[in-house]
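Hello,

Our lab assistant flagged a job as stuck in the queue for most of the afternoon. It eventually completed. Since we weren't sure the result was trustworthy after the delay, we are filing this so someone can double-check. Below is the sequence as submitted and the structure that was eventually returned. Let us know if re-running is recommended.
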Amino acid sequence: MSNKNLFEKFSNWATNFTGSSYAFIAAVSIVIIWAVSGPVFNYSETWQLVINTGTTIITFLMVFLIQKSQNKDSKAIQLKLNELIAASKQASNRMVDIEDLTEKELDQLHQYFVRIAELSKKAENIHKCYSIDAAEKKHMSKYFDEESKL
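-- returned structure --
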């Protein structure tokens, strides 16, 4: 097993664990044990240093773990969105992989879609475009498209 696969597995496990109730309970328990042990150590500087050092190290490592998880989730969401764009006849394929555009170019695209939304608000009745009948019609068109592919 390569180091990359090992890190990936560890990263997934650590992300799942640190977001669990067990991790929270463990963290609270450590803080309580530390606080209760204060009188035993006369609230010394070393006693304070233990919790400060421990939390600093955990925070430092968690930053990288969270960033890795965020990057992976972002990539997965982008791929899902790209699939939807590619599958839609009406969507522009130019929207696939627009992450590399400049901020100015993204702002220009944003203004384009803001204008479309404004025009839609003026022209459309929400009850007309988001009705039960419209949902059933959309479902049936997708259902029959899938059946014809088989």
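-- support follow-up --
The delay was a queue issue, not a problem with the job. The result is valid. The chain has a mean pLDDT of 87. The chain has two domains: 1-91, 101-150.
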